[in-house]
Write a structure and sequence with these properties.
Elements: H1 2-13, H2 23-39, H3 48-53, H4 56-76, H5 86-102, H6 104-112, H7 118-126, H8 135-155, H9 169-185, H10 187-191, H11 195-203, H12 212-226
């Protein structure tokens, strides 16, 4: 299928990374947007019948677009998917520091209960929140992340060849602060739970009732913290 072919080509062309669990989640919103654009339907109305109504030629065009888009996005955060995932390790450490700064009681409760945020943050960061937000909310978040990346790229100085790391800090930075605001959103509920309760809660955060309004509030908070 479309997803398998895109992921296969990515893995072949990126031997330093290959296929890593979570890249399929990153690809999914791009496919959804391609199908929405081609069919003219909203995300809630996409179904197999609509997909089957799209010509093979147009599906191939969507497939090509998705490949180049996922390549661009992953180039921003490539070290999240290489051996040892150093980018994820770095972001999780910073996430803990931000939570400690913006919500000291929650941070203290997590530490007192011995809860390690790594498994949860790993999912949020590698899957770019795809597994934890409704698709419409995920698209709203991604719109902001991509816009932030483009803005940061426009402000980036010309590379000098002296340690310039390349890539945009905008995408990663905004995602990091969004994750911090996301867990702080549930602070009161988490502080009322023990280790087991928090573990199960964070495995499947209840966001079914989320809409653009909630995501925009969290994005606004993330922008304030980031600046």
């Amino acid at each position: 299928g479309l997803l398998e072919r895109v992921l296969f080509v990515w893995a072949v062309r990126q031997p330093a990374s290959g296929y890593v669990q979570g890249i399929n989640d990153v690809l999914l919103p791009l496919v959804v947007v391609g199908l929405m654009d081609e069919s003219g339907e909203g995300v809630s109305r996409l179904d197999a019948e609509i997909i089957h109504s799209i010509s093979e030629e147009r599906l191939e065009a969507i497939e090509a677009d998705c490949y180049w888009c996922v390549t661009k996005i992953l180039s921003e955060i490539f070290d999240h998917y290489t051996e040892g995932q150093p980018g994820v390790q770095r972001m999780v450490q910073r996430l803990k520091e931000i939570i400690r700064r913006i919500d000291a009681p929650l941070s203290a409760h997590l530490e007192a209960q011995g809860l390690d945020l790594m498994p949860t943050a790993l999912r949020w960061i590698t899957c770019l929140m795809v597994r934890d937000l409704p698709m419409a909310c995920c698209l709203r978040l991604w719109d902001a992340l991509i816009a932030e990346s483009a803005q940061a790229a426009g402000q980036r100085p010309i590379a000098t060849g002296r340690g310039d790391c390349g890539g945009s800090a905008g995408f990663e930075e905004l995602l990091l602060y969004f994750c911090a605001c996301f867990i702080a959103y549930f602070s009161q509920r988490l502080q009322a739970m023990d280790f087991e309760g928090m573990t199960f809660f964070l495995m499947q955060v209840p966001t079914d009732g989320f809409a653009d309004k909630e995501v925009e509030v969290l994005l606004g908070e993330a922008y304030v913290l980031k600046c």
